[in-house]
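Checklist before submission:
- one chain only
- standard amino acids only
- sequence pasted in full

Submission:
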Amino acid sequence: NDVSGWRGAMAIEHTRIFSQMPAWKKDVVRLLKAWSRLKLPVAGLLFELIARSLHEPDRDRIREGFLAALKMIAQNCRQWQDPVRKQDQIDFRLTQHQWE
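Returned file contents:
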């Protein structure tokens, strides 16, 4: 099946990109996924995109990165470019109910 092969190739490419991220950004992704499991289901890809866009803080990289990522999510109006399919934008918005 061409579709499953294509999806598998996409997953492998996303895994490669994640593996190249600095360790502190990977930890931010893990924290966001844990937070998400408690609050609402969100695709891990979104958290990887958010973490990739973070600037390295001067200190407490993981904590500061996690807080910066939550602020980005709270802004509720950002689109992130998929690093594999460059033409695709990942649009993510939370409703008021989802924040409660």
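Reviewer check: The beta strands are 79-81, 89-91.
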